Amino acid sequence: MERRVICLLALACTALVVSGGEVTAQERDAVTIRVDAHAAGPVISRHLFGQFAEHLGTGIYGGVWVGADSPIPNVRGIRSDVVAALRALEVPNVRWPGGCFADEYHWREGIGPQRRTRINNNWGGVAESNVFGTHEFFDFVDQIGSQAFVSVNLGSGTVQEAADWLEYMTADARSSLGQERIANGREAPFDLHFTGIGNEAWGCGGSMRPEYYVDEMKRYARMLRNYNPAQREAPNLMQRVAVGPDGGTPDGGYTEAVMGAWQGKVWSWDIEAISLHFYTNESTWPPRFDSEEFDEDGYAELVEDTLRMDGIIAHHSAIMDRHDPEKKIALMVDEWGVWLKPLPGTDPGFLAQQNSMRDAVIAALNINIFARHAGRVRGANIAQMVNVLQAMILTDGPRMVLTPTYHVFHMYRPFQDATFVPLTLDAGTYTRGEWTMPRIDAIAARDAEGALWLAVTNVDPNQAATLRIEVEGLQVQSASGQVLSAPQVNSRNTFDAPVAVAPREVSVRATGGVLTLEAPGKSVLVVRLR
Ligand code: AHR
């Protein structure tokens, strides 16, 4: 009997073996993915791949800002290695300065030559020098080629303070605030794409009743004006993002209150989006899962927990649909990610954690969920960009390492602003102890050039999956792209071994009109179909 290898991604996975016309066990058990290339869904907004950078731990100081006098290579104080890594990621927007920090932030303390030092009450009680302020943030966003998402202080600030900040950022020299910005070194107005009207008003933002928040939010929505002439029309109109639900508390009342108010609104105010925050492992507090030392139980429980995101979005989307059937208001999941135990020896207020292959799987599953809800979910910001929670990048003095989550975001770049293409598959199940979940997850999309992309996650950490790809409306010849996998669920990149988890190239040709791909256990695969 002739045995020959027909499938091969450049993977350390089992080769698919075909034996003279007979169907092998692998082929029989193959997962068939049927992509309907004729059907088109909504656009998967690039803003689903947004980042979040808070004044928290070393997320800004050390991670982004090192100061112009630092021996670490930098441009105007912003570290160049981190900028290069983020440029490569094509980050669509960065949310700043918080988080909880935003609701105690006073922008005037972070401009001009004299900066005021305060205590960062939310995060470790450390001194906040305010050296990284408005100008430094926009410089950073420009350096990485991204857009700005600024959350104003509704918790401890005033409407006037927030309105002045917007005028400072966007007005020309007719305004004294515009003149002040120019005197501080920035002639042209800043481009402010998103403005968050407070943060977690139901929690650290003031524990407000939904009705109270709505009254406040209407004032901010009215008074926050963007004077930048380049932002008077779509697609660059500033988007106002109201506080929405805590995903972990489905009946908190914010979605109903904000959307009900919007439905009955008068001419004088408006919003473009509401936010949703939900963290994997939010229900077990304080966080009890380790980011480095865990076994398959720790993998399965957290991966299953992350899948709750789908039901949470569906729940809040249904409320939004009642008030806004045309989906004018976007849902922005502007905080998400896995929240784990602080690394031993670190300040618990710094939320420092490692990042593993488990986190890469969790990232891909969340992105897939957002994409399936792309008609309503038009923004998401992973928490957080550097050194905090589920980070893209870890730094230690001059050293930098890219995490498995970074690689997922990098692999998914073709999905930014692509059009969702429906697919069907029989996902099967992966079970470990009391945790059961779909074994395979996948999405497809067509990019602006017409290329068809497929992203597949094999959740099962132990079994490779053979995938049979069928595309209605296209005779698929080949697939090429990248796959991310690792020997262990807790495999991770360290400063001493920075490429332990790194994507590998994949290229496979169809045989007899059938495209067969192999997804290793615990893997994320992104390929272009031709
Ligand atoms: O991302 C860390 C914190 O989590 C944010 O500051 C806050 O908004 C949320 O509770």
List the helices and strands and how they pair.
Blueprint: E1 3-5, E2 17-19, H1 25-28, E3 31-36, E4 43-44, E5 50-52, E6 74-75, E7 78-79, H2 80-89, E8 93-96, E9 118-120, E10 126-128, H3 134-144, E11 147-152, H4 159-170, H5 176-183, E12 192-197, H6 210-223, E13 239-242, H7 254-263, E14 273-280, H8 296-306, H9 308-323, E15 330-338, H10 357-372, E16 377-383, E17 393-396, E18 399-402, H11 404-411, E19 418-421, E20 423-425, E21 429-432, E22 435-438, E23 440-446, E24 452-458, E25 465-472, E26 478-484, E27 504-509, E28 515-519, E29 523-529
Parallel strand pairs: 3-25, 5-8, 5-16, 8-11, 11-12, 12-13, 13-14, 14-15, 15-16
Antiparallel strand pairs: 1-2, 3-20, 4-19, 6-7, 9-10, 17-18, 19-23, 21-22, 23-24, 24-29, 25-28, 26-27, 26-29
This protein binds alpha-L-arabinofuranose.
Residues 54, 98-100, 199-200, 335, 383-384, 389 line the site of alpha-L-arabinofuranose.
